Amino acid sequence: MTYKYPVYRPYFNGREKDLVMDCIESTWISSRGRYISEFETRFANWLGVRRATTVSNGTVALHVALHALGIGPGDEVLVPALTYVATANAVRYTGATVVLVDSEPNYWQMDIRDAESKITARTKAIIPVHLYGHATDMTALMALARRKSLFVIEDCAEAIGTRIEGRNVGTFGDLACFSFFANKTITTGEGGMVVSNDDRLADRVAQLKSQAVSTSREYWHDEIGFNYRMTNMCAAIGCAQMDMVDELIARKQRIADWYKEFLEGVPVHVHETQPDTFHSFWMVSILTQDAKDRDPLRDMLKEFGVETRPLFHPIHHLDMYKEAHARFPVAEDLSSRGVNLPSYPALMRGDVATICAPIRAYFERMGNVRETVSALRDAFEVKASA
Ligand SMILES: Cc1ncc(COP(=O)(O)O)c(C=O)c1O
Hints:
By secondary structure, this protein is an alpha/beta fold. It folds into 2 domains: 15-242, Aspartate Aminotransferase, domain 2; 245-380, Aspartate Aminotransferase, domain 1, CATH 3.90.1150.10. Helix content is 39%, strand content 14%. The chain has 13 helices and 14 strands. The protein has helices at 15-26, 34-47, 58-68, 85-93, 112-117, 138-147, 199-208, 232-242, 245-262, 291-303, 329-337, 349-364, 369-380; strands spanning 51-55, 76-80, 97-101, 123-126, 151-155, 163-164, 167-168, 175-179, 192-196, 268-270, 277-278, 284-288, 309-310, 338-341. The strands form 3 sheets. A 7-stranded mixed β-sheet has the order 1-9-8-5-4-2-3, sandwiched between helices. Strands 10-12-14-13 form a 4-stranded antiparallel β-sheet. Strands 7-6-11 form a 3-stranded antiparallel β-sheet, with no helix packed on it. A hairpin with a 2-residue loop joins strand 6 and strand 7. Helix 2 packs parallel to helix 8 (232-242) and helix 9 (245-262) runs parallel beside helix 12 (349-364). Pyridoxal-5'-phosphate binds next to helix 3 and helix 4.
């Protein structure tokens, strides 16, 4: 089904096409070419970090980062229960054990006190995920990690532009990983980046992503590496996206403000922002007060051509990560009530007003989908099927 208002659609400024054409005309279409280093340098400078290494997606960014830190079988890695599955999968790829941590209820990020309670003699690293564009409390998390001698890999897939007291997330941990999938704030189609302030770790990631090829001997490989390289064509799109990264983030701020304005007085809770944090609003998300309203609300919005997404299923609900008796009450509660609303950068104020009108009407009609749809049908020219 095509939606009038999809959850996401990428935003291009036109230079993407020219730069990709340049790759094709110059025949530099694989993982060598000038756009790779240009994208890496611009990204590192923009973020405020010493080094950035392109990779082919955000999942392998996490895997190669874990591998570079020497994490493997017998080790434990703390991961929030409420995240996209890739965070946990990357840990599993290394043979290490995923140890899940509950969320805090205010901003939906990893609960640092619960993280501390999960640390054992085997724990080697923590992966805070800056979920939906908010930030994990990195001051508390870094203090904990330093006290317990643990590595930190920030999962910034959803958080380019998110800042804590003016400092970008991705600059706090030993390593940080980004995703440039088509629904991310900047995109290269598929793509990712690993960043670090540690030259030794950055060199190791760069070598591992390219079959661990020797820097001193031709066609010699120092260890078992990976082909996790980004193509020059993807990097070319990344360069064009970097031209307007600040504009994209500003657009998302405006969209979030419009949602807050049009949902004022509606009994839903819009994802809040901690006072010291700049929330980049990769997704604008809401919680219904009652979990039973979540799915009817989504069904009703679908009738009006508005695509939504549920918040992620907690990782321990997935068969591969099921743990007997495991309970993560906050993550479970958020997941049962949460909805991601259309959040793509081209949305205008009138679009957000249009999306919010049926949400308000739904609650004014006590959650009656049929009545809401028929009441608003003419205004929206939709066919009621509820
Ligand atoms: C939190 C999180 N981590 C990791 C990833 C993986 O990124 P990719 O889809 O580029 O592999 C994603 C994205 O989709 C994500 O949302």
